[in-house]
Design goal:
The chain has one domain: Rossmann fold, CATH 3.40.50. The chain has 7 helices and 9 strands; from the N terminus they run βαβαβαβαβαβββαβα. It has helices at residues 16-27, 39-48, 67-81, 106-127, 156-175, 205-218, 231-239, and strands at 7-11, 31-36, 57-61, 86-89, 138-144, 182-188, 192-193, 203-204, 224-228. Strands 3-2-1-4-5-6-9 form a 7-stranded parallel β-sheet, with helices on both faces. Strands 7-8 form a two-stranded parallel sheet. Strand 4, helix 4 and strand 5 (138-144) form a beta-alpha-beta unit. It is globular. Bound molecules: NADP nicotinamide-adenine-dinucleotide phosphate. NADP nicotinamide-adenine-dinucleotide phosphate binds at residues 12, 14-18, 35-38, 41, 63-65, 90-94, 115-116, 119, 142-144, 188, 191-192. NADP nicotinamide-adenine-dinucleotide phosphate binds next to helix 1, strand 2, helix 4 and strand 5.
Length: 243
């Protein structure tokens, strides 16, 4: 199956991480679909990708973080694109430093868990059946780390949310050891930015997108966690396919 026959659903594709992935996938000839709650973010994404690729990008307004919203988005998606062969999930938010736990409310923690963990679970439950039994398919999670680097004053709830998403991905690997679809994860232990908003040690979202695209293109690993601590580590993901 050539890249042009493959349709990748990029969950979170309108975000900082996701937009780099979407652009890289389109540049390699894949068809890509993105669901976002915000039509203006989708417009921004359309103007960000190369003009000769725009026809290969399908955008749908929807909320994949609720069971009802995810089912509605799935129906709209299948009507538009017919099939999904691959999924990349980078749902969540870029950063959270709301303060130490005693200054926070239950609502704050609920928001963190809803955006990081619950949207990842609910969308996985809705969309995984589309690719689960196909050995030519991939499902790739992009998560943050939850180690020492993240835990600094005021980031506690981010660590709680990131840790729970990591645990969820581990649970999937353990519960579905034999699933035909290739199930992989990139665990990013550093910041990710657009070329205009970079800081020392950050990953350029376009370089990250290239690494994710090579993983999706190759389909030769499953149940693997690629840990990315610095930009050089992305090369490992890309080069492993050329060994
Ligand atoms: N940015 C970083 O520095 C960094 C570093 C390490 C790891 N990561 C990982 O990458 C993930 C994404 O980060 P990011 O920087 O790309 O965040 P972002 O720019 O805020 O984008 C997150 C995306 O997730 C989507 N999303 C969240 N809940 C949703 C829902 N219920 N329904 C539909 N879409 C939903 C948002 O969609 P809408 O368009 O609908 O708002 C948005 O497009 C993080 O959660 C983290 O695990 C990021």
């Amino acid at each position: 199956m050539s890249n042009s026959d493959r349709v990748v659903l990029a969950l979170g594709g309108a975000g900082t991480v996701g937009s780099g992935v979407v652009k890289a996938l389109l540049d390699k000839g894949f068809k890509v679909a993105v669901i976002s709650r915000d039509s203006s973010r989708l417009e921004k994404l359309r103007s960000f990708v190369s003009s000769n690729n725009k026809n290969n990008l399908t955008t749908i307004v929807g909320n994949v973080g609720t069971e009802e919203g995810a089912e509605q988005a799935k129906e709209a998606l299948l009507t538009e694109v017919g099939k999904v062969t691959d999924i990349v999930s980078s749902l969540g938010f870029s950063w959270w430093q709301g303060g130490p736990p005693h200054t926070q409310t239950l609502k704050d923690l609920q928001w963190v868990m809803e955006t990081l963990l619950l949207s990842t679970f609910v969308s996985w439950k809705a969309f995984f059946p589309l690719v689960k039994d196909n050995s030519d398919s991939t499902y790739t999670f992009i998560t943050g780390g939850a180690g020492e680097k993240l835990l600094m004053p005021g980031t506690g709830f981010l660590t709680v949310g990131a840790a729970s998403t990591l645990a969820f991905c581990q649970v999937l690997r353990e519960e579905y050891p034999e699933v035909p679809c290739k199930l992989n994860q990139l665990k990013i232990n550093t910041g990710v930015g657009t070329p205009e908003r970079m800081a020392p040690g950050y990953l350029n979202h376009l370089d990250l997108g290239e690494a994710v695209t090579s993983l999706v293109e190759r389909r030769d690993t499953s149940h693997t966690v690629f840990t990315i601590n610095c930009p050089a580590d992305l090369k490992t993901v890309i080069l492993e396919g050329n060994l």
